[in-house]
Every structure is written in structure tokens, then in C-alpha cells.
Amino acid sequence: MGRLFSPIALGPLEIGNRIVMAPMSRTRADENGVMGSLNAQYYAQRSGAGLIVSEASWISPSGRGLANSPGLTDENHVAGWKWVTDSVHEKGGKIFAQLWHCGRASSPHLAAGEAPVAPSAIAAYGRILTPEGFRNFPVPRALDTDEIRGIVAEFAHASKNAKDAGFDGVEIHAGGGFLIDQFLQTGSNVRRDKYGGLSANRCRFLFEVVESVAKVWGEDRIGVKLTPSNRDFGMIDADPQILFTTAVKGLDELGIAYVHMVEPLESDLKEGDVLKDNAQRFRPYFRGRMMAGGRFDAAKAEMILEKEGADLVSFGRLFISNPDLPERMRLDKPLAKPDPETFHGEGEKGYTDYPALEPHPYLRLVEEE
Predict the structure, then answer these.
(1) Which label site among 72, 200, 213, 266 has the fewest CB atoms less than 10 Å from its CB?
(2) pTM across the whole model
(3) Mind listing the domains of the chain with CATH numbers?
């Protein structure tokens, strides 16, 4: 393997390889969204990645969309995440916090007892597990302009908490069908004010969030995740090429460290879909680092790096079952398969109990001496 294991500068940071651990919700925080020792062990096991991007952390109680997901709103969250970041740093790793507001992809029992909020009163497509069983997503309440400013401030507050917790930077989740993505796309945003209509207006909320977070971190320690081909929760846009070109160009002007561009699975593509090979498609509009994600293996990762369609590649599920994924790739060793039944839940099973490679006996002998 060539470029995959070469070092690279990411803003002011030097990272040892181009392998990024993608953000993955594992629902092992406590009921209040506080992380603990088991979470610290899980992330430390995977600190061989050039960069870890943490699972999504909600920036407001009203923005939570998943039970037992972590938060970044108060001192208890800071203390829990500090345990994690210290453990990663002790192993020589680097870790960014992913900041998240679910918007309409939630329900009152998760969103502080209130109706979920969104750019427009259009319900997400699908069902969510509630205390009464699975129910259709409720119709959200459309945010007014003052409330939008308040959520921008909550992103800034959570980013300050991330800094206090010892993270090396932050990634803003602007994809996945969550709140920022809901503002971006016409299928969920039919506003007639300055946050709706033209693509530049629909990108306004994203840009304001980035600017507010940059006041805490500086632009060069910020990444943004985009998912142009995502259809989760009924996401769709009238002209995604224009929309995401506008978004990427604006992020380039803001000077952030990287864009995390997620590729669609072939099975997810529908007839007429045009957005695939997204990292390479939008690379010409962004001068910072481009990160590609979406079920890559080592060979495909090397290919996109060689073509300079991306500078870094994120890996998700492979990191679940292979805590030492970079080493296994470097040595061309077999990869363990993850168990989907334990992706979410509680406890060690399927979380911290996947073994790393056994070191060579000679190396063990040298270490013992």
C-alpha cells in the first residue's frame, strides 16, 4: 500500500496515515448521553487511525434523535468525552468530535418532550421507535428566524464543550437527512425567507454554523460532512448538482480543513441518480482536504488516493470488527466481519471484544526483554 499509509497535514495537525475512522452511532452512552470507561476503551483500541471522527453528539436536547447517543451540552458530557480523548491521545491518536442536530428525524420522547423542529413543517419519511412502539415520524414545527440564530449559538456552545473535552477539532454533520441537510434540500425546505428558495439561501444555515464554530476553533480545525446522494428520511433535492456545488464552494471560501464527502452504495442508486463519485465530482471546487467515505476497502481507497480524488478515506463498519484496521491493511491480513446484531445496544459484546492481531512471537519476546 502506498498513499494510504503516508502522513498528511490536516490544518495544523500532522496525521500519520490517510485512514480515518468514520463516525458511527453505537448507542453506548448512558441515558443522559454521558460517555464512560467502556467508550474510552473502544476508541483507544482504534487509535491507530490517522484520525478518529467520533460518533455524532447532539448539540441540544431538542436535537437528539437516538436513545443512548452522546451529547455535548453540559459539564457531564465534557467529563465523559474527556475520558475518551485522553485515552486516544495516550495511544498517540487524534480525534474530532462530530456535532449533530437531528431536526425532524426525531420525536418528542427524544427531543426534550417537544415536537421536533425543522426548516419547514414536512415530516421525515419512515418510522421511529417510541415508548409506544414504532410510529411514523411526527410533523415537525417550522423554526422561526430567531430560533435559527439560537441553534447556531448551540452549535458554538457544543463546539466549546468539545474543546474543553480535549478533542483535536470538530466535524459538523451537514448530511444524513439531519437538520442542516434538511435546510439544504428542497424536499424538506420550502421556506420563503432568507433561508429558503435559491441554493445560496438554503446553504445559509450551514455557513452560519461553520462561522460560529470557527470563532471557537478556527477554520482549520473544522470539517463538514455532506451526503449528496443520501435518500434517508425521504431526502431529495430538485437540483443536487447546483446545491452541493454551491455548498462546497462556500465551504472553500470559509477555509475549513476538510469536506467529508460520502459516496452512495450501488444498491442505493436509483434510475436517474446523477450524484456518485462525489468526492471526485466536487473536488475541483474545494482547495482543502477532501475525505471520501462509503464502504471503501483498501484497494478502492488506494485507487481514489492515487487519482487524487480524495486526500483521506473514512472507514466505518470495518473499524467495528477490526480495532487495529490500519495494521491489518498494512500487513494485508484477513479482516474480521462485524456482527450487525451488536451495532447498537449496550455492553462489551460487539463493541470492545473484537480482538486485535496477535503480535509475532519474536516481537513479544523482544517486548518482554
Answers:
(1) 266
(2) 0.95
(3) 3-368 (3.20.20.70)
